[in-house]
Amino acid sequence: MSGDAGYDYREIDDIIHGRVRLAVMAFLSGAGAADFNELKARVGGTDGNLSVHLKKLEEAGYVAVEKGLRGRRPQTTVSLTKKGREAWIAYIARMEDLLRPKAAE
Known about the structure:
CATH superfamily of the domain at 33-99: Winged helix-like DNA-binding domain superfamily/Winged helix DNA-binding domain
Strand content: 15-25%
Order of helices and strands: HHEHHEEH
Number of helices: 5
Distance between the termini: 7 Å
Number of strands: 3
CATH architecture of the domain at 33-99: Orthogonal Bundle
Shape: elongated
Strand order of the largest sheet: 1-3-2
Low-confidence stretches: none
Largest sheet: 3 strands, antiparallel
């Protein structure tokens, strides 16, 4: 196997690569934004578990979390940021590089 930089698994974005965070990013890449309960229903997990993963994505600048009211009920909306979309595209490209068969030298 060659030392091809395109095959360097260490370049995978660990922030995205966790299963729950990967599911969040995949869903938001299509939806753009979702309320917390919709996101929880799509990716599974508990309120606390999802909150921890969203915090990590938010700290990286990949998602924006907005809290507000819908009527008298609290509502949390999560949206993919420009930086998050760019990171998602780069993540997908890196995974494609890793999955593409490499010619033996």
